[in-house]
Design goal:
This protein has two helices and three strands. It is an alpha+beta fold. The two termini are 25 Å apart.
């Protein structure tokens, strides 16, 4: 989302939900696994909701506090 579009309508936001798991590894820092679902995407008739709307992320390293 561009900054100009955000200032034109700050209430034009997308809905999503997700789960995540964080594990501390002394040698690398934090290892994280996240999975999120976006509710405002178009399905276009495809059958698999988790593949169409979902996104999986892996995070390795320290996160800022």
């Amino acid at each position: 989302m561009s900054v100009v579009r955000l200032f034109n309508n700050p209430f034009d936001i997308n809905r999503s939900a997700g789960v995540g798991l964080r594990v501390f590894l002394p040698m690398f820092g934090i290892l994280g696994f996240d999975y999120g679902l976006g509710f405002d995407k178009d399905n276009n008739g495809s059958g698999n909701v988790f593949k169409t709307f979902g996104d999986f992320n892996i995070i390795l390293g320290f996160e800022p506090e």
